[in-house]
Design brief:
This protein has 451 residues and is an alpha+beta fold. It has a domain of 173 residues. Strand 10 and strand 11 form a beta hairpin. 41% of the residues are buried.
């Protein structure tokens, strides 16, 4: 039998004209301009670059777009620089490097980046990106490996070497998430350092528009946030908390003392009973006597491990159930509702994964302050993508991961055509997401302009 080669045969020549790529990434740059992010990044940097050079706000905006587009080093600005018809005049790598150094050297440089993002958030929410209902703030830390000796890098609790930043994200009701705050910490920073949690929460609250701070705010964290100082700070701010709690001997005894009838079916996010999961309130714990604020309650979830699950060392009963406990000061009497509200704290893992896909996986500088500036730009890029999804995109793209968005939209190629003093970018009509990209640009151009 003769083998059949189904792969197409073609020739490759370098004689094309007017062809561009990364058309969708231009959407993010223009959105930053429309929301005033570019202007705020330039205005809040109190030291400009030398006369005749690039505007600092535009350089920082291009770095943000480059990160959202998949870059992980300053040299990746060449992706934008090589396409001036789409992105204009993009700064050289040395210029961008110098501006990052200036931000790092300025004592208020990092705060200026977060302040610019907060001002842009006010405008984005005013244009329709504001979430509905109570505000859900998720806090968590992650590890970033350092493959060389960098300032502030240290051994981690997982026997690695690098950094241990702590961040806070807004878990939106539409399934997306905005970055509110993050601080860079050495790799040996403690997971349950109360002072760091207090600082990040303060940054996150300042990042919210002032009218939104009067809405109910629920702060969620894993057991690393279960410290008396952090919980007391939350209560002092008149906020609600839902924080993981260790299953120590007192908790295990309280679980064992529960009446079998105390367990009720757990609920999924649609309010329907979950199979193999039950919830109960641990009334036998004296939390107030242990130093926790008045009104603190302990809620326990019992569930069967799913088939194939690895049985880690931990507390189980004779039937092999797993137990997870969290404390909260929410007044809702139904523990199943409280548990269903706490479980989506797991979304913070999606936010961390998304941030690492946008440039957080590697901190490229030696200096700690410069890496802190890079981390801040990554969080701005993640938030800008979130606003693009909320304000401009439809369907699956509203919830797509960064890698998916790059494949479907940001990296789309087109042909540049000049006609009647107009610059037109033609996208392949056969591309499945071409219509969505055209619609996104139309919605973007309909937003009020702001430079």
């Amino acid at each position: 039998m003769q083998a059949t080669n189904t792969r197409p045969r073609f020739e490759v020549v370098a004689d094309g004209q007017g062809i561009c790529s990364h058309v969708g990434a231009a959407l993010l740059g223009e959105l930053a301009d429309r929301l005033g992010l570019t202007a705020e990044l330039g205005r809040r940097a109190n030291r400009g670059v030398r006369g005749g050079s690039h505007d600092r706000g535009q350089v920082l905006r291009d770095l943000v777009v480059m990160l959202a587009d998949g870059g992980d080093a300053i040299s990746d600005l060449a992706t934008l620089r090589d396409q001036p018809d789409l992105f204009g005049q993009v700064a050289s790598t040395p210029t961008a490097w110098r501006i990052i150094g200036q931000v790092a050297a300025d004592p208020s440089g990092i705060a200026a980046l977060w302040s610019a993002l907060a001002r842009a958030r006010q405008r984005a929410w005013a244009l329709g990106a504001a979430p509905a209902g109570p505000l859900l703030l998720d806090m968590d830390a992650t590890l970033i490996d350092a493959h060389s000796d960098k300032q502030g890098a240290a051994p981690t609790y997982k026997q690695g070497f690098g950094f241990h930043p702590l961040g806070c994200w807004l878990d939106r009701d539409d399934g997306t998430g905005e970055a509110l705050a993050m601080i860079l910490r050495p790799g040996n920073a403690g997971s349950n350092t109360a002072a760091d949690h207090v600082d990040v929460l303060a940054m996150a609250l300042l990042a919210l528009p002032k009218p939104a701070r009067g809405r109910p705010i629920l702060v969620r964290a894993d057991s690393a946030g279960a410290t008396h100082a952090f919980v007391a700070d939350i209560v002092a701010r008149n906020l609600l908390f839902s924080i993981g709690f260790d299953c120590d001997q007192r908790v295990q005894a309280a679980i064992g003392a529960l009446d079998p009838d105390a367990w009720q079916p757990a609920l999924d996010q649609d309010g329907r009973p979950r199979r193999g999961a039950w919830v109960a309130e641990l009334c036998g714990l004296d939390l107030v006597g242990a130093g926790w604020p008045e009104g603190t309650r302990a809620i326990c979830r019992r569930e069967r491990p799913h088939p194939g699950a690895r049985h880690k060392m931990g507390f189980t009963d004779a039937a092999g159930h797993r137990f997870q406990v969290f404390i909260t000061n929410q007044p809702d009497p139904d523990p199943a509702v409280l548990e269903a509200r706490h479980r989506p704290h797991a979304h913070v893992e999606d936010r961390i994964r998304g941030a690492k896909a946008i440039g957080l996986r590697n901190l490229p500088f030696w200096g700690f302050a410069a890496n802190d500036a890079w981390l801040s730009l990554v969080m701005i890029a993640q938030t800008l993508v979130c606003w693009a999804q909320v304000l401009l995109l439809d369907g699956d793209c509203k919830l797509a991961e960064p890698k998916t968005l790059r494949y479907r939209l940001w990296h789309v190629a087109g042909r540049i055509v000049r006609h009647a003093r107009r610059l037109i970018v033609r996208v392949d009509r056969a591309w499945p997401w071409a219509a969505g990209l055209v619609t996104a640009f139309a919605r973007l151009r309909a937003l009020p302009a702001r430079c």
